[in-house]
């Protein structure tokens, strides 16, 4: 059901598109991991890039395909944990993994393997862009709620909460509630997903360990310097 409202909740941010655009050439080949309904893939294709978007959610991919008007953009159901099985080495100029998608891999070995696969499928000089929420800030302040996303025109409210675990892997449970107003009736859909709260230093170390060079760390897509209070952790690395 979330897929039906995804575009209203998470439209492509101009600042994010501009950040990516500054790091690629117009004819670049891009792989967009966990692309959702393809908002960023399509925005980048409109700038002249050849984009492949993959996501595990078949409904998301179906919706993305409906929106495609350009042969430079295609969408596939795919698992980012199996990149090297599907995509050739030296195939892409950019691999993109944003929207806190990396945190959905709750096994650190999966993340390490993913980063190695990203390096392998990138061309020489290719780039990796990863963005997650700033878990350093979340863990230190024990942040439990994010601002609600309200879209009055379509009658939806998206509520996001974090539940902290004392388990061996220190996972955070991300609980979301989508409220849908239909006339006088309100429908509520609740979902719960475990996330791995990677701190900035650990994520940067993983990216370095995978073999990436010229690594930059930002606090958001405006290219603000990263700090302990930044809203996000944005890491860029190059294959040199």
**Tally of separate helices:** 8
Number of strands: 11
Q: Going across the biggest sheet, name each strand in turn.
A: 3-2-1-4-5-11-10
Mean pLDDT figure:
95
**Ends: how far apart?**
42 Å
- The stretches of 5 or more residues where confidence is low (pLDDT under 50) are none
Report the order of strands and helices. Answer: HHEHEHEHEHEHEEEEHEE
**From the helix content, strand content and strand pairing, which structural class follows?**
alpha/beta
The percentage helix is 25-40%
List the helices and strands and how they pair.
Blueprint: H1 2-9, H2 14-21, E1 29-33, H3 39-46, E2 50-55, H4 58-67, E3 73-77, H5 83-86, E4 92-97, H6 108-121, E5 122-133, H7 135-141, E6 145-151, E7 156-164, E8 172-182, E9 185-195, H8 200-209, E10 213-218, E11 232-238
Parallel strand pairs: 1-2, 1-4, 2-3, 4-5
Antiparallel strand pairs: 5-11, 6-7, 7-8, 8-9, 10-11
């Amino acid at each position: 059901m979330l897929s039906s409202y995804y575009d209203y909740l998470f439209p492509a941010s101009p600042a994010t598109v501009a950040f990516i655009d500054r790091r690629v050439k117009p004819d670049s080949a891009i792989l967009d991991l966990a692309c959702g309904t393809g908002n960023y893939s399509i925005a980048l294709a409109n700038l002249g890039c050849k984009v492949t978007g993959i996501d595990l959610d078949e409904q998301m991919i179906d919706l993305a395909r409906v929106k495609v008007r350009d042969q430079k953009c295609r969408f596939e159901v795919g698992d980012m944990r199996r990149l090297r099985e599907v995509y050739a080495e030296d195939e892409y100029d950019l691999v993109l993994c944003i929207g806190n998608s990396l945190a959905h891999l709750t096994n650190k070995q999966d993340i390490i393997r993913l980063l190695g696969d990203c390096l392998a499928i990138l061309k020489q000089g290719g780039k990796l862009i990863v963005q997650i929420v700033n878990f350093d800030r979340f863990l230190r302040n024990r942040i439990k709620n994010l601002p609600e996303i309200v879209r009055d025109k379509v009658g939806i409210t998206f509520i996001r909460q974090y539940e902290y675990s004392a388990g061996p892997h220190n996972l955070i449970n991300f609980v979301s509630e989508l409220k849908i107003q239909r006339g006088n009736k309100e429908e509520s859909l609740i979902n719960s997903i475990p996330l791995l709260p990677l701190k900035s230093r650990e994520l940067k170390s993983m990216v370095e360990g995978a073999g990436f060079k010229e690594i930059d760390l930002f606090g958001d897509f405006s290219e603000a310097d990263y700090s302990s209070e930044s809203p996000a952790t944005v890491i860029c690395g190059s294959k040199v």
